[in-house]
Structure formats: structure tokens, C-alpha cells
Amino acid sequence: MIYIGLLIPFIGTIVGSLFVFFIKNEFNKRNESILLSLAAGIMFAASIWSLILPSIEMGGVYSTIIGIVLGILFFSFIKFNNSKMFFAVTLHNIPEGMAVAVCFLSLLVNNNISLISCFMLSIGIALQNIPEGAIISLPLCNKGYSKNKSFLYGVLSGIVEPLFGLLTILLTGIVVPILPYLLGFAAGAMIYVCIEELIPEASFYKYSTLFFSIGFIIMMFLDVIFG
């Protein structure tokens, strides 16, 4: 199950990168905004129910706060020092892969997170990765790269997610004792991605707040009902 969960976000990147073979022009901005809005809502809710609340339950509020602050600060620094699109997308995919792995680890170790919550986190990230894969591959194709090479770059931007997720699993012995901090860290990273990356891009469409709310409610409902 855990390996399927790690692969789901990467599948989203592959799907988005495949658009280069079917779309002649830039990815439709309205459709991109809708997908990003839904993904942001799902991911923001997942940050709360799948990461923050279990972190508080496992280690208390202070370890959770420390983790959230460290996650936000760390990826604020990464963002500040990397401005190229490919590297920016690749770097912020790293904490997403780690977040999925940490979520499943928490399920296995403490069983205080539902399986549906873990998979909804994976699906939320996958939804976000669809337009991101297109954002990488389509502009490269427009600049003269072949479709195959553009597709490859799009895929490479997302492959770090399952790789860093797998690395997190392999380091379980180190990860488990600091799991509350890591859950908070992953939540901080996810919140940062939502606020700094997804919401500004999604705000192009006037109904983006509505779709954000829909995504948030879907994730909240599934987690509360099946959690």
C-alpha cells in the first residue's frame, strides 16, 4: 500500500507532462486554475487532518509548532535561492514525497491516521502535479525542444517525490523517534506550497476560491467520515 501511495503523486506529474503530445498551445489557464484550486484545498485540509492533528496527538502542540515553523522557514529559503521553474518545481516536490511517506509511516507505527487520509494526501498532490508537469513540458516544447525531451524533463521534475519518499521509509529507524516533528515539518512545507505556489497561480480564475473550498470540504469530509 505504501509504495502505491508514494507513486500516485508521480503519476500526476506523468499525466501533466503527457499534455505536450496532445496540446499545441499553452495549457489552458482556466483549467489550470481549477486544478490548482482543488489541489490546494485538498492539500491544505490534508495538512491539518493528516499531518498537524496526528502530530499534536503523538508529540504535543510544541513539537508540532516547531516542525511547522521549520518546514515553512526551510522551504522559504529554498524558494528564495532558486528562481528557475524546473528547479523550483523539483525542489518543492521533495517535501511532498516526504509528507506522503511520513503520513504512511505514522499509519504503520501509531495507527492514528486513517488509510483514506494517506491516500487523499497522495491524490491531492497528484492533482497539483498535473498542471506542474504541463508547466514544465509545454514551455520547453515551445522553445524548440523535442516533445520527447520536453516530456522527459517534466517527468524528471516529479521523480524526486517517490525517491525521497522511499528514502524516508528506508530511514524509518531515524524517522520514527522524531515523527511528530516531521509531521509538523511536512505540514509546514505543504502549507508553504499552497500559499506561495498554488493559490497565487490559481487566483487567475475568478471562481478559484469556490474550487479551493470544494477541495477542502472533500478532504475534510473523507477524513472525518473514514478517519
Q: Your description of this structure?
A:
α4 (85-109) packs parallel to α7 (160-170) and α5 runs antiparallel to α10. The chain is globular and about 50 Å long. The mean pLDDT is 84. With 227 residues, the protein is mainly alpha-helical. It has helices at 2-18, 29-59, 61-81, 85-109, 115-142, 147-158, 160-170, 172-175, 179-202, 208-226. The longest helix is centred in the first third of the chain and has 31 residues, at 29-59. It has one domain (42-226). It is built from 10 helices and no strands.
Which helices and strands appear, and what pairs or packs with what?
Layout: H1 2-18, H2 29-59, H3 61-81, H4 85-109, H5 115-142, H6 147-158, H7 160-170, H8 172-175, H9 179-202, H10 208-226
Helix pairs in contact: 1-4, 1-5, 1-6, 1-7, 2-3, 2-5, 2-9, 2-10, 3-9, 4-5, 4-6, 4-7, 4-9, 5-6, 5-10
Index terms:
mainly alpha, 0% strand, globular, 10 helices
Give the helix proportion (percent range). Answer: over 70%
Mean pLDDT: 84
Discrete helix count:
10
User: Strand pairing plus helix content: what structural class?
Assistant: mainly alpha
Radius of gyration: 17 Å
Largest sheet: none
Shape category: globular
Would you report the number of β strands? 0
Percent range for β-strand residues: under 5%
Span of the ends, CA to CA:
17 Å
- Uncertain stretches of 5 or more adjacent residues: none
